[in-house]
Design goal:
129 residues, alpha+beta, PH-domain like, 2 helices, 8 strands, globular
């Protein structure tokens, strides 16, 4: 929850519009996924982690440092769609779009929504379950 002040100056709690979940894959690796308020998966971790705690820490670090990371929209490996990804300064990918998009503009808009949701989550501690 975050605190907002209304026009009347009264503070009230407002729900964060996204949440994070950690899953385990068939190979025993952990990955996070960011879920929007409407239930759609917005982004996933770019790689798997060996331990639950490492995955959770990676998402918390992403929330805290995402402004220092760069993002890009690019073709899918097969070349028949668009994906976005977020990279650290060393070029390592940290987050990727949860799906491929048919149009560049739609993918870019999804990337911008992801960044906005991530910024909202920046103030919420323990946001990954």
């Amino acid at each position: 929850m975050t605190r907002t002040d209304g026009a009347d100056g009264a503070g009230r709690a407002e729900a964060v519009r996204a949440r994070c979940r950690i899953d385990i894959d068939t190979d025993g690796g952990y990955g996070w996924r960011m879920i929007a308020q409407n239930g759609r998966v917005v982004a996933v971790s770019a790689h798997a982690f060996g331990a639950y705690g490492d995955c959770r820490r990676a998402f918390d670090e992403l929330r805290e440092s995402h402004r220092d990371q760069t993002g890009a929209v690019q073709h899918t490996p097969s070349g028949n769609g668009w994906i976005w990804l977020l990279r650290e300064a060393d070029g390592r990918a940290t987050a990727v779009s949860a799906r491929a998009y048919e149009r560049h503009s739609t993918c870019r808009a999804a990337y911008e929504r992801f960044r906005a949701l991530l910024a909202e989550m920046g103030d919420v501690t323990g946001s990954c379950l």
